[in-house]
Structure formats: structure tokens, C-alpha cells
Amino acid sequence: MSHRAAVPLFFSLLLSAALGNGASASDCYTVDYIDIFPDPGGPGFTWPRNSLMSATLLPYHYVPDIVLGPGENQYFYFHGLYGRGVPTYELFKESITLYSAGSDGSWANVGTDRTTRGGDAAFLLEAPNLLAPGAHHLKAWVSGDQTEANAFAWVWNPGMRAVVTDIDGTCTLDDLQEYLDIIYEIGPLDYVPEEKPGAAAVMQFWADHHVPVVYITARPLYLKQVTIDWLRAKGFPLGPLFLYGASGGILPPLTDAERIRFKSDRLSDLETRAGVRFLAAYGNTDTDAAAYCQALDMPPEHAFIIDCPSCDPTPECAFSTLSDSWWSHLQDLEEMGIPIVPQPCE
Fold first, then answer.
1. For the whole model, what pTM was predicted?
2. Helix (H, G, I), strand (E, B) or coil at 146
């Protein structure tokens, strides 16, 4: 289905089925990244080998983002990791503190745990530290060397409307950017992926209309902070960010089937467990299209595949193609006069 043929059908369905009269929503659809974090102090490392590895290797700790429904257990997972490639080292039996940012930019201690031999720590929040409905910036703090891992938690009521997008080749210039990021992170040089022109503007359009953007990427989890920094630098609105972790967060999926399974499973979970309703999905490969077809309960015309000449819709997996550019799609969005999307926020 061509780009221009798909748009009228897409928006007629969108406006009739999903949008309301312009009711406003609270801040459950956006999150502020709090740059200022006062050093809370704390003891140094307990184990000398941790000090040695910290002085030798760069930190790549991570806490996966999570979308929760009201009443669900608020459980967060930390992995302490130094180095990429060879060698790597997992933070051994050290204290980790989890902080949550308040609306005034202050930080509250919401839990402490000690890592296992494999570098893992876990936090189950309980009253009075339970996160209220909305979006929250979390930070896991390693007092031994003052390193950190940032994450976002989203507590949404069922029926939250969102869009989802792939990153590499969809928001970046091409799929090669993922592997360049991996290679350069292993090596001594920095690399900043190029943005596909107009991608950030389209995602910001949705955020301006109170629709959060879910980012789903086959990048390994150790690239999480690199990816957050890139999204911010290029002007993308922050939203739930899901990276591939089945390899221990070190490698991307090795097969197309695993890429499809990862994205499909994650999106199905958001729909069935958290009650998220997706209004649109964006990707650039046939694996993105397959994942969206398998997982998302929405008309197939709401899935858009950009810059993929070899991607052909089939009866089993229909989708729309964006053969022009992100700017053309943004123009279509703006010309429709889409109102603010009402969200089930508290």
C-alpha cells in the first residue's frame, strides 16, 4: 500500500476510533530527564578487585525501563557492568541505591540492595516509596565509584494510547548505525549516529498531542545510556525505551526470528498486561513489520514502514509504506488537525 493511499484511511480510522474532543491529559505521557544529581556520598568499594576494574574499564550499568499498571508490583532490576568486548567485569557484591526524582527535581532514596556475584541487584518498592501514576526518572547509584544507571518507570492506567517506533534505520539514517555504535563503544573513539531527517519532528508531534512514544530496538542493553543521550541530543521526546537483553545485554539478536520474537513479545506484553493501545507503529524492515503484525491489536494500515523498497505488504501482514520522507508524513499529520489525545491519567 503506498504512502499517499494509506494516509486518508489511516487517519479516518484514527480519528474515529481513538481520539476524543481534545480533553487534556496530565504528565503521564512525558518525563523530564533530571541532569542534576547531588552526590549522596557513601562508602567506597568493599572489594579491592571492584576498585581495580572501575579504574580500568568504563561503566555500562543498566536498569531496564518498565511500564506498570496501577496495583502491579514495582520491581526494578540493576546490572552492574564494566567494559565491553574483552574484557568485561560484573560488579561483585557491592551496595546499590535506587533513587526516584520528584517533580521539583529532588531525589528520594527508594531502596538499597547488594549485587550478586553476577552483578545483579533488585528492588521491590513498597509504601511509602511506591511510584504514583505518571512518568518517573530513576537512578541506580554505585557509591563505590560514583557511577550510575538511569531508567524510566511509567505507571499507566489501562487504555493508555501510544505510538511505537524502531530506532536504527527508522530514526537513524540506516541500520548500520546500530553496529557502528557497538563497534565504537568497544573501541576508544566516540560515534554519534546520524538522524533520519524529520524523524524527531514526527515523534515530537505525537508527544505534543499527549501520545507517548515507545522506543523498541534490537540494540543490546549496554547501549541504553548511549541511546538515551542520542535521543535527547537529537530532539526526540523521551518515552519507554526497550533494548534487547537476552544475551546478557551484550549482543544484539543474531537472527531475524529472534528480532521479531523480542519485539513482538514486548509489545504483546504492553497490550495485554498494561492495557496500552497503540495508535501507530513505525519501522524500516520486514522484521519490524512482522513483529507489528504479530503483536499489535490495531488496523494494519496504522503500521508504517519507511525506506524499505524490498518490503511488500502481504495478505498475512499488511502495512503502509512511507516512500517519501518523514517530512511528508509530518505534513500529513499536521494537515489532519489532530486534537489533543485524551489519556486515562490520574
1. 0.89
2. coil
